[in-house]
Amino acid sequence: MFAEVLTGLNLCASTGDIGILMAAVLGLDTTDRRKTALMRHIWRPHRFRALLDRFAGRVPIPASRAALLAADDPWARAGPDIGRRTVAEIDRRIDALRADAATKPIGERDLSAVETLLSVRETAPCALARMRDIAIDLPAITPALDRLNARLSALSARGVDVDQLGFEASYGLSLMEYYDGFVFGFYAPTRPDLPPVASGGRYDALTRRLGQGTEIPAVGAVLRPGLMLTLEATHDR
Predict the structure, then answer these.
(1) Which domain holds residue 72?
(2) Which region, left, alpha or beta, applies to residue 12 given φ > 0 means left and ψ of -120 to 50 means alpha?
């Protein structure tokens, strides 16, 4: 629908699927606590990467945290009790940090598979084939890849040339924080200074995250008419 509306503006489309990366995180051989932390920061690439490195043991524990975890009595030199957190909440946090420090690192095979997945950026069929290879080491993403394959077939049936459709596994991770599935954007290749002229995707889990308890399947997108008019004026000249 959006491609039809944007006909004549000479735009190119980029697509992605945040659900594939989410499936990869949930399939890691690590604790639920670590998976939850990674899922919480999946839309913040730098924080997500830092957590991966920490959970894989690639970076040392900060000296201040190491001292805290090694202390027999963390409260011995804590100073006055200020702030809104209770002592019990802080104790639970320290216990969680100790448990995490005792957890084995994420294995190199899992880590390499996620890093390779994040680097996928090709035409959609080639991207799917490459991610099928990654699924050999990370089989948890296979159902999500099957959904991508079905989506490409549906797009093709509607006249979309999927062989020329771009796909980026990391697409939308820094700009589309409540999306959790298929995402897309349309760009003007001659105006790299402009943001997406249109973008959108699927966000089934938004209602659950807002405390409604259940997920409601939902898709949405936005057109930016100001950018459309700018491009139309450029073409008219």
Answers:
(1) 58-101
(2) beta
